[in-house]
Sequence to fold (143 residues):
Amino acid sequence: MVLGTTLIVVLRYALNEGSILLQEAVLYLHAVVFMLGIPYTLKADGHVRVDLVYSRLGPRARTVIDLIGHVLFLLPVAGVLLLYSQSYVARSWRILEGSSEVGGIPGVFLLKTLIPVLAVLLVLQGLAEIARGIRTLRDARRD
Fold:
């Protein structure tokens, strides 16, 4: 993406040339990184928390808060995203939607497919996190 963006800038400002295809390729790569990076970041516990209370809590309380968040927020949002994206993506596949720009990438339908893929991966990772949290709480009770 960095090389693509650099090439876009060099083409535009040094050679006074543009490339819709290259610009869209960088946009698509950016979308792929974010859409597939969200579930991975959840797995790696890498999401930014701006909660001053959470950081002061013990491991058990943090686990309970994470479980509540996963059950009440993550799974419902991912479920709604999956439910509502299906017709949107199906419509795009039916017409094999391409770029609205001349010379653009003719695969918008592929990019839109990442929306339900993201939702499914979030549900799966959310369920894994819930199972991990329950196991952590169960193990803490035994100690």
